[in-house]
Specification:
The chain has one domain: TATA-Binding Protein (2-Layer Sandwich). Helix content is 39%, strand content 24%. The protein contains 4 helices and 5 strands; from the N terminus they run βααββββαα. It has a 5-stranded antiparallel sheet with strand order 1-5-4-3-2, covered by helices on one side.
């Protein structure tokens, strides 16, 4: 599970007021929930894009701190994908990046830089 912070001064519930419908728009129908660190995250067991096997996504609530976005993408092995499914791979990458940008306000480069800083600040922490 990866956890993403919002930009300074921004909050997840302001960026995505209706997490459920936003998740369904990007990835497909929600089939249940999965508990993570005391928060119920949405589970998509049959995502619209065939590259994904399942997706777990939602707000992780911390008392006294800003909520973070929790996301876990389970993807199929690229060697198992057929030609039509390989075309869907670029759409899967776009869906992930567009969703994360909408939710966090950070593009892929900013998210990478933030994770690098977190590792440098705490080299013993596992990501």
């Amino acid at each position: 599970m990866k956890e993403y912070k919002m930009r300074r001064g921004e909050y997840l519930e302001e960026r995505i007021p209706d997490m459920e419908s936003t998740v369904e728009d990007y990835f497909g129908p929600i089939t249940g929930t999965e508990e993570y660190k005391g928060s119920d995250l949405y589970l998509i067991e049959e995502p619209d894009n065939p590259v994904f096997e399942k997706i777990v996504v939602g707000a992780i609530e911390y008392s006294g701190k800003k909520d973070k976005l929790g996301v876990e993408f389970h993807e199929r092995d690229p060697t198992e994908l057929g030609p039509d499914e390989l075309e869907a791979a670029s759409e899967a990458v776009d869906a992930k990046n567009d969703f994360l940008l909408e939710a966090t306000g950070r593009d892929a480069k900013a998210r990478r830089d933030s994770m690098k800083r977190a590792v440098e600040d705490d080299p013993d922490h596992e990501f």
